[in-house]
Amino acid sequence: MTYLSPRLTPESIVFLEEASTVYDFTPAEVEYQVSWRKGIVDQLTQLAKRPGRLLDIGCNRGLLMESARREGWHPVGVELSSVAAERAREAFGLEIYPDLEAVWELEPFDVVVAWHVLEHTLNPVAFLRQAAAMLKPAGILALQVPSFDFRAEWVERNLAGSLLCAVHNFYFTATNIRAVLARAGLTPLWIDNDPQSLLLTAYCTRTVPDVDQPAPIDVSELLEEMAAIQEQASSWYKRAEELDAAVAEKNQHISHLEGMIRRLENGRLMRILQRFAR
Q: What is the DSSP string of the chain?
């Protein structure tokens, strides 16, 4: 397991998160981000069989929660950053709490989501156990982290800062995440290490002791459908990267044109001044 040492304190992490502008979107961009997350919600709905109660740990601006709400889920969020939580409440009227202890007495959840959270924790096993305790007996815990297996690709794409940063305390691979899940008492239903998005995704349930172990369920057809959805999501990631590159090129072209206009205007002004000087 690769990890950061020394690490920031929880208070420092919260300070950085509250100062972050990563999710400062225009209204149109917010709508796009909410709609894009429907693919994630569809996967969760297939696994859970139907919409139910969803806990989003590290919900940030509430984009996934709002997408789930539109699909019939009852979302509840946990967000350490008071700034992000307030933006989610103002934008969507969502139910968000400051920590896991605050939701402990609530009704259990059909699905608990921790998207890009596990790498920020100080004790991944303890965190997973606490998150799993919020589930109904047959509930699903959904995780996603940057994949350390693709660290070279992160660097090649000039995205190293999204993988190696001060707020990422642990770095997960397809191998070590299985060990962490096992230590937390979780059994993976599906693990995907995607070379397109460079992300590692895991859906898991609480491990049932052998004495109470029910007959295995055939989920092969469901997993095939999930794989197809994941392939579509990968194409969306690629398209998003292409759009980002196009926007950057457009902005560079606009800056060049603005520079040319300024030079033309300055030259015209100089000619006028010279005329008066005569």
A: -EE-SS---HHHHHHHHHH--TT---HHHHHHHHHHTHHHHHHHHHHHSS--EEEEET-TTSHHHHHHHHTT-EEEEE-S-HHHHHHHHHHH---EESSGGGGTTSPPEEEEEEET-GGG-S-HHHHHHHHHTTEEEEEEEEEEEEBGGGHHHHHHTT-HHHHS-TT--EEB-TTHHHHHHHHTTEEEEEEEEETTTTEEEEEEEEPPPGGGPPPP---HHHHHHHHHHHHHHHHHHHHHHHHHHHHHHHHHHHHHHHHHHHHHHHHHHHHHHHHHH-
